[in-house]
Amino acid sequence: MPHISLDRKIDLFDFAKSFSSVFEKSPLIKISTIYVEKNGFNALLPAVIIDEKHQEFLIEISTTLKKTTIRLFPMTDPVKTNAVKSSLVKIYHQIKKHFPDISISKTNLLEYLESDLTS
């Protein structure tokens, strides 16, 4: 399962205030809102991807006292296309912009992170 783990807890309510919609045309990647659970430990971001196929799914950001993880919400299981994986990276970049001192502790999306920085 594609994921990006970060080295500390982030404040999801604070991040939600600065979240800006993601919209790219080719392939289509649309993430327009964020919903934070009232406990502040989980957030869901509805995503629409149109590349080889049309897919709608949820991106989950979950926090514990020591880390934060960005991943696909397990109850939605899209085909893991390049655009689906890139959508997780786009959320990471917004988090990194808002919390510049955060670092990746574990990921299986390194090639997407590197290619996103060069494009």
UniProtKB/TrEMBL annotation:
Name the UniProt record assigns to this protein: Uncharacterized protein
